[in-house]
Specification:
This protein has 188 residues and is α+β, with helices and mostly antiparallel strands. Helices cover 62% and strands 12% of the residues. The chain has a single domain, classed as Butyryl-CoA Dehydrogenase, subunit A, domain 3, CATH 1.20.140. The protein starts with a helix and ends with a helix.
Amino acid sequence: MGAALQVTAFGLALLSTLFLLLATCTDCWMVNADDSLEVSHKCRGLWRECVTNMQDGVRTCDQYDSILADHPVKIVVTRTLMITADLLAGLALATLILGLDCITFLKEDPCVKLKMCYGAGVMLGAGSILGLIGSMWYAVDVYVERAMLVSHNIFLGVHYDFGWSCWLGLAGSTGCFVASVLLTCCLY
């Protein structure tokens, strides 16, 4: 039962870590939510803003200035939280691989392997919380920005909604949290 639980947690942690990495690297955290008459599809991300022409499929992207340049707080905070979550999830994944019962590393000392699995669960939990905070921070800020424009009857021509990268970040963080619970609570 313990080995099956470890492998299940490993599979979930691997998939969730990939989701977190993809969410951090992709550029569709916000998408335009206008009517279907739009001739272009706009995406804003943590690193750049892209526009895709719907008629010919040409995509152009504008990189944000510099990492050290002045950016909105939601971008800076989300970048920081997501990168930290990626690093913690990656480190937890490496630790979990070494702690699995099916790996021959430290086979003679099962207590150390169990502690490695527990430590990986703690790191996954910390990474999942940071990823959830980062994704939710960005999503709430998009919602508040849109609500403020609507409440003041301001129409700028483009309204943004949550993009698939934001949903991917939330899914990856949730998966890491479930894997953390499996490793820290259910393994013992």
